[in-house]
């Protein structure tokens, strides 16, 4: 240490001889010493070897080489990236390739596989494979060792996420703090869900995954999507798909909020899929009244007049309340809700309750909480961010949206995709767009009680117009009879 720092006593601080003004300490070089010490500690922290357990990794591979049952169990717990040692990743891949091809797995066959791939020397030859088997007495503990490997991988992910978040903080001087917080939350979410980002993938495995999904659909092993509760819509869309941004749009009082809540009711109350409704327009009580009315068929007007609730209706309401105790439907009516809040709450629900559907009522009422050049630009940012949220959480996000006055300028009053208000990017970002049209809103004699749900955009299939009944008294849409034939559509 330099002579000017001779009185500095390591971590214990400064001696009495050096106590004085800050200027005196600076002159003696004390501040520099402390700064240097802190910097050295930080450097040492990131110079450490990342958490891993070579013995556990060897034991996992040894157990997999000894037992096919161990392969099936371990492959459900860990991925190739959970292994710290590159040679262990290579061996694991070889074992999984043989197992996936329904081939027997042992040291000799894995060695031949590695030799054919040109990787045998990279892992240390056949002798190393034999040492893996010798490192574990029985394959029965393979899952225990796999848990150790997985836990070490999580710790490495935590370190990587923390490092990236720190870099975001230091390099974001010209950015909005809220944007940096959102990116940090996204990093933590990706890490906690165990996802590994990859920029590209070969077409072969991707096609295999697509065909595998189709096979599972045919066998009924996976759900088709989040059901909307409407026969014809579900038939065309096969349910609302994970990662989709779905827009439900209409003129004021046309029923777009009702349709959005119908989708959430069908998913959460009738199929047990966790759903959340962010209501920027109505209060929780108003939303609850709509849901109660739609589910019990007690008119909305009666729920606002105590005299109209008979003992029979009270009995119906009590039964419904009991049914709702554990229903996976959440409602959030927080005022001035920002996009960042919505994303954070959705990520938390995905982790804690396996969120399956998000409904936002409605897009034009959202706020970014920061200065923007124009409202159109702000809505465009919302639209794009919601699409990214749907992909990140792998859930359909339903965004309700207003239409401009375009339909009222036409003779038939029917809405079109170009009527989406304030931003053309909504049309671009959306995977599915439903436009709500009720002819009797403009002419009471024109198909009273009926509604057209116009699928104006369907990225993965045909567009179509669905005919539903609109029950305004109980705030819901309903399927028309099977033999229904719309008139003057």
From TrEMBL:
GO terms for cellular component: cytosol; primosome complex. NCBIfam families: DnaB (TIGR00665). It comes from Bifidobacterium oedipodis. It is an enzyme of class 5 (isomerase). The keyword ATP-binding applies. GO terms for biological process: DNA replication, synthesis of primer. InterPro entries: DNA_heli_DnaB-like_N_sf, DNA_helicase_DnaB, DNA_helicase_DnaB-like_C, DNA_helicase_DnaB-like_N, DNA_helicase_N/primase_C, P-loop_NTPase. The keyword DNA-binding applies. This is Replicative DNA helicase. Gene3D superfamilies: DNAb Helicase, Chain A, P-loop containing nucleotide triphosphate hydrolases. SUPFAM superfamilies: N-terminal domain of DnaB helicase, P-loop containing nucleoside triphosphate hydrolases. It comes from the Bacteria. Signal peptide: none annotated. Residues 16-28 have a biased composition (Basic and acidic residues). Belongs to the helicase family. DnaB subfamily. The main replicative DNA helicase, it participates in initiation and elongation during chromosome replication. Travels ahead of the DNA replisome, separating dsDNA into templates for DNA synthesis. A processive ATP-dependent 5'-3' DNA helicase it has DNA-dependent ATPase activity. Keywords: ATP-binding, DNA replication, DNA-binding, Helicase, Hydrolase, Isomerase, Nucleotide-binding, Primosome. Residues 219-484 form the SF4 helicase domain. Its EC number is 5.6.2.3. Residues 32-43 have a biased composition (Polar residues). GO terms for molecular function: 5'-3' DNA helicase activity; ATP binding; DNA binding; hydrolase activity. It catalyses: ATP + H2O = ADP + phosphate + H(+). Residues 1-52 are annotated as: Disordered.
